[in-house]
Structure formats: structure tokens, C-alpha cells
Amino acid sequence: MFMRQLILLIFILAGYPGKSLLSQQNMAKNPTDMPLRIEIPANSVNETYRIIPCGTNGLILFFRSQEVADAARTNWYFTCYDTNFQQIWVKCVPLFNDQDFRFHQITKDTAALLFVSTGKLKNTENKFEMLRIVPNNGTLILNTGILETGAVVDAFGIQKNRAWLGINTKDQAGKILNVELKQGVNKAFPLGNGSQISVLWMSPDTSSNSVSAIVNRTVTKKNVEYYFVRYDTNGLIKHEALIGTQNEERSLTQVKVASTSPTAELLLGTYGQGVTNSSSKNRQIGETTGFFSSQVKTGIQKSISFYNFLELKNAHSIVGEEDIINLKKKALKKKKTLSEYSLDFSVVLHDLIFLHDEYILTAELYSPQYHTESFTDFDFYGRPYTNSYSVFDGYRFFNTIVAGFDTEGKLLWDNNMEIRNLVSSDLSPNVVVYPNGNELVLCYISDGKIGSKIIQTSKVVEKLDFSPLDKLYPDDKIISETKGILNHWYANYFLSFGYQEIKNIALETNNKRLVFYFSKLRFDN
Q1: Are the C-beta atoms of residues 402 and 442 closer than 8 Å to each other?
Q2: Residue 7: how many CA atoms within 13 Å on its side-chain side?
Q3: Residue 14 CB partners (closer than 8 Å, separation 6+)
Q4: Closest Cα to residue 283, out of 187, 190, 156?
Q5: CB 352: neighbour CB atoms within 10 A?
Q6: Pairing state of beta strands 175-180 and 432-436?
Q7: DSSP secondary structure string, 430-477?
Q8: Cα–Cα distances in angstroms (integers) from residue 414 to residues 138, 266, 350, 388, 516, in the given order
Q9: Which of 226, 234, 429, 506 could form a disulfide with 475 if both were Cys (CB 3.0 to 4.6 A apart)?
């Protein structure tokens, strides 16, 4: 049994002897046996409730209402709760009808949320709105702008009084939009020369009014160039480095960047075998072969290394040892190396974690999931026949790879965790990687349970184990869970939230309910 697991607070109060990984806790002034959990009745899982954790400043719950502000706008409601789930304030903000939430970033005391046009409404401008929220005093500031038709925001960041939007447009050169927030002045500039150029990654520099980006330029159908570029607020290139891949058949699919010194950067990410032209629609990530690392110093690439997933120490935990043996035999027969083969995974990449002089890179593996539906129809002569079609269920996540690199990009270790029964409607990270001393806690939510594993580099400290989430009432039974999310909140506290269908035959009324819930969890070492 997993020693540090999710247990109910009532067990802790009763003197439960074991340790706990994530325990729900009632932090109210008059504690009871009820968990610290809030439920909001929902009509369907397609409602728009979302939560942004804001550290010790609490959390922001927001959703699109059915209220019409005017012909062009719909009211969105934003509610701030403190860390004990006490409501602090509620605000209403009218946003354009054709907009939905896309990105957010948390700074010291402000949450910045970006809303963009979905393109579902015809004859509407491609507008974006940026809402900055100060949780402590309920200040809300809205900036609005217009993008070119067909432009898609693929990167977003805030630094001091400026916002940066990385924009890609099909068959056109990508751009970066710089927004001076106080004056509301928007200035767009191209990524570089040529029409087939797009942004893969972007982040504002914390020490200056500039932004760093990874851009790719399609030279020919079989040749794509990658650059690490730093721009000032006017789009002037201050610093540019060509990132060679050593092989035209390799493409960089996703990239994360860390500054290791004032004049050096470490690029970590994933690569694929064969060229991937991301300028058409950057958000659809290409198939991935493995990890890569590259070191850039004073604007020059000093090294680049590639690590095929098949060659990782824990590869057998991802694809099965027998499959790897068969691939090795095939490679030997054709006088090739294992690195020339690819499993072509689809991957969601996490932001980098810096821990104990190492950079931790995490990748979640997934595949689209469909089911077949059939119905009986009749032909012209009245004879029955069966029609079948595929229905998209979502993205099934099935494994997580965690790897540690030194400051020069050398792979030091790798580990992994299986993901079970997790189907998501969007491509966002599901697994939380929580540093705990010399260990890493890997955890996620699925089917009303927390799956968790504890590792120390390549060593497994605690195997994957599952613990049930606490419910509002003892006889509650979770029938289904949709869009479940687990986030680290602050210190050793976490938030879980999502939609749950719950049945409780002990209740005289409302014995079956659909709710959007959120709960507070605590990691006990």
C-alpha cells in the first residue's frame, strides 16, 4: 500500500497511523468532519467554469454566463476565494461574444488572463482581450486589441508593464505583438525575413524590456531552420543564434528555454524524425521521437544532443521490453542503430523545473481516442443495412516521462509514470511534478482518485498508487468525472477541481447530482 497517500481528514483526526500524500483538510475556524470542498450545481460538463490558482492570494473562479451585456458582449463572472475558500469578492466583466479563455500568467500579485476569438462567429473582428486581476483588492483592468484575420495566438507572457503575444498565421510570417499596458499601445513586428516563419516558444526577459523566442523558418520542403532570437520592444533583433539539428530529417517539435547565465541559454525539448512544418497550425504538435538539448553561449550554439525515447533507461516501462528487443533485432538486421527508429509519440511538454543544479523536463504521452457508433438504415428497396462512424472522445494520456539534465544539457537520468483512465478534451499538462526535498512527487487526478508516485532521479521511492478523493457526504458515490484537474497551489497545498456526477441514495432529495467542485488538498511528508 502506498504509504504517503490521499486520506480523509477524518482519518487523521482519528489517529490514522500512516503518512499521507495528499489529504483534504477543512481549514475553517470551526473544523468539522466535512472536507474543505465547494460544489456548484451544473447542467452539463460543457459549462465554462475554470479556476486559476493564485498562490497565497487564493484562487479565481470564473465562467461565461447567459447574461447579455449588449449586442456584442456577454457577461463573465469572476469570484475570488481565499485559501480557506472564503469568498472575498465577485465581479462582472463583459467580454466579446466570440471569445474564450486561452492563456494565463501569475506574477507576484496579479493574474493576467488572455481571451481570444474562437472564429465560430462569422463577420466578426479577430479581437483579443487581456484581463489583469489583483486578487487582494479586487482590481480588474481590461486591455483590448485586434489581430489580423486568421492570426492565432500561440504564446503569451507578461513582464513588468508589457504583454507579449506570439502570433502565427497560415501561409504568412509570424509576428510578436508588444502591448504597453498602461498606455494601451499595441506594436506588432515580424519574427524575421520570409513568409514561412513561425514562433515555437516565447518568453519575456525578466531583467529587461525584451522578449526571447524560438522561431522556425521553412527554407525548402525538406529543410527547416531554427533560431533562438531576442527582440527589443520595437522588434529590433538584439541577439540571434542558429540552432542546427545535425540532420535535415530531424525537426524540433517543442522547445523550452532556461537562462543558465547572463550570456548562456539551455534549450530543452522534443524532436521528431522528418520535417514538421508548424507554420500551418502550430498548436497541432508533430509526432515526437525523443528529447533534445542544446547549449547556446554568446549567441552561438555550442552543442546539441538527441535522446531517442527507445534508448532511455526506462523505455521498457513505456513500450514494453519485448517491443524494444524486436526493434533492436530489426535494427541489427538492417545494419541500423536503434536511434534511427521512432515510436512517434504525441507529447505535451511541461515548463522546466530547476532543482539541485538540474533542469527537470517532463513530457506526457497521449493519443487521440475514438469510439464507433452504428445505426440501422434502409435502402431504396427497404432492406436494412448498418452505417458506422467514428466519434472523437478526446485525448487519452497514458504515460509521463521525467528526465534530468545538467546545466550543459547532458541527460543524467530518466524515469516515468503510467497514467490510467485519463481522457482530456484539451492538450494541457495533467500531471503535477512536485519537488519534495531530494524527491519528486508525480500525481494526477482520474475517476475521482489521485494517482501518485514518488521518485528520486531514476530510483522509484514509492510505486504508483491510487487514493480516493474525499466527498461532501459519506455516502456520496462518484459515477463519473470529467475535466478533472490537479494543480499545485502554494506551499504543500494543492487544488483539485472538475465536473462530477454523484449519486447518494441516503439523501431524500437530490440523490443524483452533477456539480463543478473544487477541493483543497495537503501534502504530508
Answers
A1: yes
A2: 19
A3: none
A4: 156
A5: 17
A6: unpaired
A7: --EEEEETTEEEEEEEETTEEEEEEEETTEEEEEEEEEEPP-SSTT-E
A8: 44, 18, 15, 43, 36
A9: 506
Q: How far apart are CA 522 and CA 46, in angstroms?
A: 29
* pLDDT tops 60 at residue 5: no
The SS3 of residue 47 is: coil
Length reported for the chain: 525
Residue 213 is predicted with a pLDDT of 95
SS3 per residue for 132-175: EEECCCCEEEEEEEEECCCEEEEEEEEECCEEEEEEEECCCCCE
Cell numbers for 511, please give them.
440523490
Residue 108 neighbours by CB distance under 10 Å: 6
The DSSP bridge pattern shows strands 493-503 and 512-523 to be antiparallel
C-alpha cell at position 512: 443524483
Count of H helices and E strands in the chain?
A: 3, 34
Q: Both ends of the chain: CA-CA distance in Å?
A: 16
What's the chain's Rg over C-alpha atoms?
Answer: 25
Q: What is the CB-side half-sphere exposure of residue 44 using CA atoms within 13 A?
A: 3
Helix (H, G, I), strand (E, B) or coil at 31: coil
State yes or no: pLDDT of 337 exceeds 80. no
* Separation of alpha carbons 309 and 291, rounded Å: 7
- Of residues 21 and 353, which shows the higher confidence score? 353
Dihedral angle of Cα 16, 22, 23, 27, to the nearest 10 degrees? 140
Sequence-ordered alpha helix ranges (H) in 289-395: 316-319, 321-333
Determine the distance from the C-alpha atom of residue 79 to the mean position of all C-alpha atoms in its chain, rounded to a whole number: 23
C-alpha cell at 222: 525538406
Tens-place pLDDT, residues 126-159: 999 999 999 999 999 999 999 999 999 999 999 8
449 phi and psi angles, rounded to 5 deg: -130, 155
DSSP readout, 224-285?
EEEEEEEEETT--EEEEEEE--SSTTEEEEEEEEEEEETTEEEEEEEEEES---TTS-TTSP
Write out pLDDT tens, residues 177-208: 999 988 878 899 999 887 789 999 999 987 77
Kindly report the pTM of this predicted structure.
0.86
Please, what's the largest Cα pairwise distance for the chain? 78
Beta strands across the sheet bearing 50-53 = 50-53, 59-70, 73-81, 87-96
d(CA 309, CA 328): 13
pLDDT tens profile 249-271: 888 999 999 999 988 999 999 99
